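[step 3/7] fold_predict: job queued, chain A
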Amino acid sequence: MASDNYPPEFTIACLVHGDIPLLEKTIPTTIEALTAESNHTWDTVLIVDGVESAAADQLLELGHRFGFDEIRLRNRMRHVSPGDPSNNGHAHMLPGKGRYLISFEGDVVAFRTGPGDVLDIISSVFEMCPNLALATRIDDHDCWQWPLHEVGPPLTQDVRSVNRVSSHFLIYDLPRATREIWMAGGVAANEYHDDGKCWYNYEDWLSKQFAAPKGSGIGFIDNLPIKVFHCDEKIAHESALYRRDLRVRLQVFENRKKQCENLIEKTFT
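[step 4/7] structure written:
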């Protein structure tokens, strides 16, 4: 988005490693869902983590094709976070530009479900909640082993106070969030671990630090005109592990796309 205003109000960051055919679907769909109809300014960043084993040339081409304002390449040779591989990208992502940071992983997609300025709703939420530093929206959380639930009264009419986040889709008020992170001693990347049976990852650390009543709260924004999904399936009911099969991920994308198209059709007919 061309603008004379700098820094932009929002940074929209996508964290990727591979699965180019999926990224060709999730990235443009998500960025369009977030920015369509918006009067706010934003900067887009493609973060390629683990570049030494990624299809770097293809990812660079994809970043240029989709008009990213910045492309970051990071290897996993030094200062690498243990646990789930995605921990590393998140651990090195902050800080960003502007006041707000929206981050999503490459196998996550946001679909539009109605009209409205998503970025304006997000900024309004943080304005109405002066202590809120971290928010989210995930619509397929029913499969999580650590269930999502409310931990206190709503922060506003359309924002629930919840117990946890997923690193799939995160919304930060950067000045507030970075202050809270540094008060906790910084991102505790050396503490992460994940063997499929026992884990403590970036999202677990964030949840522990920010969820009320200990932290400033985590806001689940219900009135965003989008739905956000992880494009994958669990290997079995109640398993902690996902299939991570490209064919499955592409099919989940198409199924969720159809689901949201049907929702829009039902709403406006």
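[step 5/7] annotate
Residues 191 and 200 are 8 Å apart (CA to CA).
The helical segments are 20-35, 56-65, 86-91, 118-128, 174-183, 202-210, 246-267.
exit 0
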